[in-house]
Each structure stands twice: as C-alpha cells, then as structure tokens.
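re the bet — no i am not wrong, look at it urself. input seq straight from the record:
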Amino acid sequence: MHRQLFFICPTDNLETLINKNFKQENYFFTSLGNSMTFDIVVVGHIKDLIIKKNIQEITFILSNKNVILTNDKSYDISQIDRLTNLNNQIVKQQKYSETLWLNGGNISLKLSYHIRNKIKELKFGLNSLFLGDLKINGKIYNREKMVFNDIYTELICLESFNLN
C-alpha cells in the first residue's frame, strides 16, 4: 500500500478532500501556511515517521484561498511574532514574482515559490543519503475547480535572473 505524508495548513481544511482524492494511507503534518521550521528535532520526527510507516511520498499542499498566505485582511500574520519569518518570506517571494512576471498577483505563483522553498528546506534537512526513492512534491488546491494542481516548475519560480 502506498503511504504518503502531507504538509498542510489547518485553515485550508483539506484532510477530507485529500483522503477522497488520494486513496491510500495518508498522514498529515499541519502548520499555519506550511510555516514549519525544519530544525533537527522536527526533521528527526519526520525521519522516524518515514521509517516507521514506510512513507514513499511527501506532498506539500496549500489552497489557492489560504487565508494565511493570500493577504486575507482577517488574518494579518505580520502581527504574530512566531510568523514573522513566514511573513518576511512571503514579502520576498512576492517581490520575486513581481520582478520576473508581469502578473505579480498570481496566487498560484506566490504559493509555488513558498512550497518550493519548503521542499528545499526539507530536502536539506533530510539530506540526500536519506532520501533514496522518497518523492517530495507540491500541489495547490484550486477551490473553484476542485482540483489539485502541481506547483510551478523551478524554471518558472526563479529567485533571480541576469539580463546581459
């Protein structure tokens, strides 16, 4: 049986939708806006879970209507001390998307930057020797179309560019 670990935001309420769409043994790690920090303790717990439950795939998922990351005025994360780093990352990623693309307001692009960053952090924490056949990817749930879309590729989510 395929076993998958999902990193999700509790404000998105995606557990039931994931269980309906990904019919397998699913595990969940929740944090606001996928803001977890992959320190040595958290990565240790993730490694233990991967080994104990024989996890074959990890997927980061956020909704395109995520109230933490979409500038929803009812959730001003800049006022929450524990989310200061996340807010700084969001501002930085928004600047990347505005610099590289005419449509800087594309929420899927913004979420893709954020999820790609979290994937890189997790891979670094797990290190390449541990990864083996473990797949790590990201998806954005589109509430209007009710589908899980892949995040934008690294070719689109550039963090810098040079013009000669």
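see?? Residues 155-164 have pLDDT under 50 and may be disordered. told u. also The helical segments are 15-21, 40-53, 84-100, 107-131. so pay up
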